[in-house]
């Protein structure tokens, strides 16, 4: 018999005298490739078997009577019992791009599940070919910033000294390699009137701070 309430679905099993449900399912996570990803699933008393799945494939089983059954070093767990129920924490070690997708915790005796999504991102390289560049008065120059091997494609912005440059002054092209990683080429066009430091910034959600590359633009007055 199934009774529906506002926040939970409780399953009453005839003859067993208990109910069980997923109280809190896992939450979405975004991490850099190579780092850990963690997901929590809290269930009420009465559960027997809890299974974690990654993109539909079982990766770890937790049995009430004996604990976690781990079949891969990359998928381990920690378990906690509290007043709110039993919590299983799935830990995915050395995350890979292929780990991106749906993460589920499932109670086998009810087929109830909770799910979240994992996004694994790659921090690629970023560089400007020259660290310094000399420009004469009234001369227009193009500064090229290249981002290689990112996932997803990074958001590119430019700064001069401590101020952001208007997007109309640079153009960014993106491409995707056969390995599923993304490249970006951003070209800034300007006519300098003074010596300044130009900085290219590349950002993705998993980065705490954008990666950056800089060039010092040395302005030479023709009257000198």
Automatic annotation (TrEMBL):
> What InterPro entries does its record include?
BTN3A2-like_Ig-C, Ig-like_dom, Ig-like_dom_sf, Ig-like_fold, Ig_sub
Quote the protein name from its UniProt record: IGSF5 protein
Which GO terms are recorded in the biological process aspect for this UniProt protein?
cell-cell adhesion
- Keywords assigned by UniProt, alphabetized: Immunoglobulin domain, Membrane
Query: Sorted alphabetically, which PANTHER family does this protein's record hold?
Result: IMMUNOGLOBULIN SUPERFAMILY MEMBER 5 (PTHR44991:SF1)
Any Pfam family: C2-set_3
Superkingdom, taxonomy of origin? Eukaryota
Q: Which residues form the Ig-like domain?
A: 20-123, 124-216
An example GO CC term for this entry is: bicellular tight junction
Where is the protein localized? Answer: Membrane
The protein's gene is named: Igsf5
User: Which species does the entry assign this protein to?
Assistant: Eolophus roseicapilla
Entry's transmembrane regions: none
């Amino acid at each position: 018999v199934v009774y529906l309430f506002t926040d939970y679905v409780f399953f009453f099993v005839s003859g067993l005298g208990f109910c069980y449900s997923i109280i809190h399912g896992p939450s979405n996570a975004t991490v850099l490739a190579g780092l850990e990803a963690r997901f929590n699933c809290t269930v009420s008393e009465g559960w027997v078997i809890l299974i974690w799945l990654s993109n539909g494939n079982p990766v770890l089983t937790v049995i009430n009577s004996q604990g976690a059954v781990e079949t891969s070093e990359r998928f381990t767990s920690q378990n906690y019992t509290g007043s709110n129920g039993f919590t299983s924490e799935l830990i995915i070690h050395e995350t890979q791009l292929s780990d991106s997708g749906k993460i589920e915790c499932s109670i086998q005796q009810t087929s109830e599940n909770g799910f979240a999504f994992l996004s694994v991102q790659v921090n690629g390289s970023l560089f400007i070919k020259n660290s310094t560049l000399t420009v004469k008065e009234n001369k227009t120059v193009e500064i090229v910033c290249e981002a290689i091997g990112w996932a997803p494609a990074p958001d590119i912005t430019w700064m001069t000294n401590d101020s952001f440059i208007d997007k109309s002054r640079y153009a960014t092209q993106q491409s995707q390699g056969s390995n599923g990683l993304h490249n970006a080429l951003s070209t800034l066009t300007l006519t300098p009137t003074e010596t300044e430091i130009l900085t290219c910034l590349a950002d993705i959600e998993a980065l705490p701070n954008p990666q950056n590359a800089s060039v010092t633009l040395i302005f030479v007055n023709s009257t000198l």
